[in-house]
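note to self: dont lose this again. the chain is below, predicted strucutre after it. 94 aa total, dont forget to put it in the shared folder this time
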Amino acid sequence: MHAAAEYIREAIRRGQYGEALAQWNDYARQLRHATEAGTLAPDQMEEARRLYEWARPLLLGGRAQLRQRVRELEVAAAYRQCPEKRPSRIDARL
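---
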C-alpha cells in the first residue's frame, strides 16, 4: 500500500484533487478490506495516519483558495464582467 500513499501525495502536490480523492477512496477500501480480514499491520495504519496528517492542511488550504475564487467569480458575474487582472508594473510610455 506504500505506492498508493505516495501516489496520493503526488496527486495533491500537482493540485490534481479529483485524482487524489479517487486514489484515497481506493486506498481506504484497501485498508478496510485488510482490517476486515485481520491482516492490517500496525505500520500500514501508521502510514495512513501520516498521509492524513500530511494531506489535511494542504487540502484545507486548497479548499479555501477555491472558495475565494468562487466568491470572486460570483461577484464578477453580478457585475457581468471578469475579475480584473492585476495591472502590470511596466510603464509602456515612450
